[in-house]
Amino acid sequence: MSATPDPTPAPKRNLLQTLEIDVRLLGMVAAFVIICLIFNILTDGRFLTARNVFNLTIQTVSVAIMATGMVFVIVTRHIDLAVGALLATCSAVMAMTQTLYLPEFLGLPLGHPLVPWIAIAVGLFVGTTLGAVQGYLVGYLAIPAFIVTLGGLLIWRNVGWYMTSGATIGPLDPTFMKFGGINGTLGETWSWIFGAVATLVACWAMWSARKNKVVHGFPVKPIGAEYAMMALVGAGIMGFIWVLNSYQIPAARLKRMFAARGEEMPEGFSAAYGLPISVLLLIAIAIAMTLVARKTRLGRYIFATGGNPDAAELSGINTRMLTVKIFAIMGALCAISAVVASARLTNHSNDIGTLDELRVIAAAVIGGTALSGGLGTIHGAILGALIMQSLQSGMAMVGVDAPLQNIVVGSVLVAAVLIDIIFRKRAGLK
Amino acid sequence: MSTPIVELKNISISFGGVRAVDNVSLDVEPGQVVGLLGHNGAGKSTLIKILSGAYQKDSGEIWIDGQKADIRSPRDARHHNIETIYQTLALADNLDAPSNLFLGRELTNAFGFVDDAQMEAETRKIMARLNPNFKKLKEPVSALSGGQRQSVAIARAVYFNAKILIMDEPTAALGVHETKMVADLIHELKSQGLAIILISHDTREMMELCDVVSVMKNGQMVGTERVEDVTEDEILSMIILGKKTPDAKAS
Where are the strands (E) in chain B, listed by range? Predict the structure, then answer.
């Protein structure tokens, strides 16, 4: 190293830089759009129907929730192979709480208004605690995370099995099942209201970020570009709501819903599903996790530790406790995913979450989380989960054989990492 | 003579049977630059890592400002206003300069969120003083040159009003111009009354920068001399032979 000035020329501000768009993210969105368009052609337009978009969305939620936590784990140079198994244990605990423990020991029957909330609280407690225990083994006792969670993969999968004797536990509480997707949606009106509020909040956030920059005298993008971005984001949100709102509840199902309330369905009545509660949950988690990553000390320490563990330690960061916290967050997210996954299936089955660890890791990695540590985004991981799920269900719709589906998904994972490595080398990042 | 701000008394530490530091004492006064010299493996870095909290001593005492101090971690050292600039530059490469400068001590706003804009503004201010050419505040520090990275590390120590500054080979990775910048900075900090412990291999540089030089060899202290009382040859002799005069008969 010498005192010679940096050889790179003064940065040219092209269109993307002016708009402050992440090129990598743009590439992923483009890949996602291309995948959707290809499948739409191959399925004669069945892939991009409202119904399939709705299904795709609710199928992605469980893996996407866990992927946001996996970002933190991988950023700090660890790995968690136990997420699918931990999900199964949490699901088993919650199912048993609802159907057996609460009715038997507390006399609260299935359907009692307290039951779902107690079950979820118990599940969250179990997930967080087991995650924290794994984090303690990694952080304080210095057992490699790979080994701890490989052991966890076997242990939690079979703890769940042992608890339930391998039986399928169901049906679950009706309120609990609202978190699964199709059984709990906002309906048309509330979905529109949510979309409008979300758009306003997004615009306000962009505007106040700009104002903050101006206060401190930092460069800002042209005001026109700002408006264009706002319009784009707003159109995206409202477009998504519009698609979900166009998925009509089948007439037969509507009739059953009216019959359940002891009413007759009016002639010509129709209703749409709208935004699923599970998606709402994912959005809330994504926002919370992004805030943690970018705006809290915890997040800063996670990324600093991933970038240079020694530097973090020497800067006075308690990296051992940090590891416990990260695995505890991962455990809590596994429990939330367990709520969504078992509610979607309307029961707890013994093989719930099987191979989810691979899907979750793949989603995080496709989403740009570097296994060498220090790099990764929450929205990238969610987009990664969406890409994985689109590939999987798209191929199923086209009629690709099951073994070939997995071969393709595996290849895509390896190719995505390769492309990422090449991209980073070109950009001179790492 | 003013009272020492740092007193290391009879410090020893062993790693697996090897006495890396053996019964070493060292005093530093405010406004004084003490140079630690010696071969690789003489125990200089180990000694200062005990003061900065990265290692824990086996025996001996550390006194700061006339009070016995219990330093068990880098955090404890910071409480005593001890800042260290490490040879390996303890920076998180993936974060930008402001995040590194404030690492472990982030500024937060009313909601408890880290205030990036405020930290960037503060970084801008201190950099204008230390290294006016420094402009890359938004890029990860991996994209910076050796000198720029060194300014971030030094800014970290200066910003938080260190009273005791430890610099382990601060100029090892730097070019001529940047080395001069660090030297000027050391003079400025010294005039502000900081106590500075400097480690280097460059005897000539040390003779220029330091008030006092201490030489270590094989984990032991060979001797401490005021720079005006010794010649460069005598220092070299202490480093190589472990005694001040190369040949007793020659004097």
Answer: 6-15, 18-28, 33-37, 59-64, 67-69, 82-85, 164-168, 195-199, 212-217, 220-226
